[in-house]
Amino acid sequence: MKMPWYLKLSWVLLNTSHTAAFCITPGYYLAAGLSDEMELSLTPSGIEFHAINSAYVVLNMFVCAKEIRLPHVTYTMIFGAIYAMFSLIYQLGFKNDPIYPPLDWEETVMTSVKVTLGIVVGVPFMNMFIFGLYKLRICCRDCFEMCCKGNNCFHESKLCCGGSRKCCMGSKVADISNTNRNGGRNSTNTTRTNLSMVSAVEDV
């Protein structure tokens, strides 16, 4: 069963936007702290653009079920290269001021080195951080399922088997008890329910 194209597009956009957000936040505040030409913006819009975006990513990572894969870092690297090219054309092609002082293309060599290091080193590092959050989410889910299993509650079994792409719910039996009150007397009816094996293969 192949994943529809629109889900693939959503997956690509999620990987790109999440990694880019974590590159923007430390990159902006580090540049503002080290550069004399760049003033730190503490306006509501500045905080929203450069800080709250990363907070949103952290929250979204723990409520979104999409998988994070390390090879998908290429999408964010391509996005970073496109943005660098855009900033170059915006400044030199249309005679505008730099979007950010560290991206001043009048200093071609230094800016090229910064951009290259950001794309080749910074983006993969942040993608590994995102991947770590994803693994933490999986760990929290597994711990919850183990706790639920220990309490004998009605729950799904382990969703992902050995980290493979094939996800499964093991066949299991659940006892559902219904208690009825009849004339002041309690009668319990127990129904034994079999949950069939369900499997889904994600082919990307």
Automatic annotation (TrEMBL):
Residues 1-21 form the signal peptide. Pfam families: Rost (PF21534). The chain crosses the membrane at residues 47-65, 72-93, 113-134. Keywords: Membrane, Signal, Transmembrane, Transmembrane helix. GO terms for cellular component: membrane. It comes from the Eukaryota. This is Uncharacterized protein. It comes from Mytilus galloprovincialis (Mediterranean mussel). The lineage of its organism: Eukaryota, Metazoa, Spiralia, Lophotrochozoa, Mollusca.
